[in-house]
Design brief:
Blueprint lengths: L3 E14 L2 E10 L10 E7 L2 E6 L9 E7 L5 H8 L5 E8 L11 E7 L3 H13 L6 E7 L8 H10 L3 E7 L9 H12 L6 E7 L1 H13 L7 E5 L2
Parallel strand pairs: 7-8, 7-10, 8-9, 10-11
Antiparallel strand pairs: 1-2, 1-6, 2-5, 3-4, 3-6
Length: 233
Amino acid sequence: MKPFECRARVDAVRRLAPEILEADLRLDEPPALEFVAGQWVSVPFGPKTVRAYSIASTPRSPTRLTLCADVAPGGIGSEWFRGLKPGDAVRFKAPLGGFVFSRADPRRPLFVAEEIGIVPIRAILTELYATGFGRPATLAYWARDPGWLAYDAEFGSLARRYPGFVYHPVVAGAGGPARDGAGSLAEAVRSLVADVTGLVAYVSGSESMIHQVRDVLVARGLDRKAVKWEKFW
């Protein structure tokens, strides 16, 4: 889909955790946006400075987008997101990105996310299970502590309502490295995936984590092209 120059207004801002914010944007132009769950928007901050934000909502609400961001880094994008308030005008380009799930793909999906990397996967899973996806799927999701597991309650609810969906949250151990998501998720995937036959993986988070998880799966015999990824940092 061709990206559009979009204008919107902030409807609401919510704090999911001390450093994780959501913002609902009501579209003005175009009045509705066609996109695929897992895509993102690009917000300009100057001639050569942009920031990307994954869309947390699904295509079933094309007139209103929900963005979600980790504002802990404190850079230009973090400060902008922290400052959003209802009524503010927002400009961005969308939709962008190819980290999307094809329902025509018969393979069994494994989703792996590290902290804010959960956002596109949340959109994909919400869309799938809201529209009759009846096949098995697994999510391994790491955070430095329980408060950073954004959407944890949603995934727990999905697992209770859909027996084919396995949710495996992973939290850093007390006294461990603050951002040991790469090693923790690699170990989780190693224990969760014994057989890669008919598997496709969607991995979202840090470059280090993506590499380590991919290495585990490739060592199990999975084709590297069967690992889709979205790098956040």
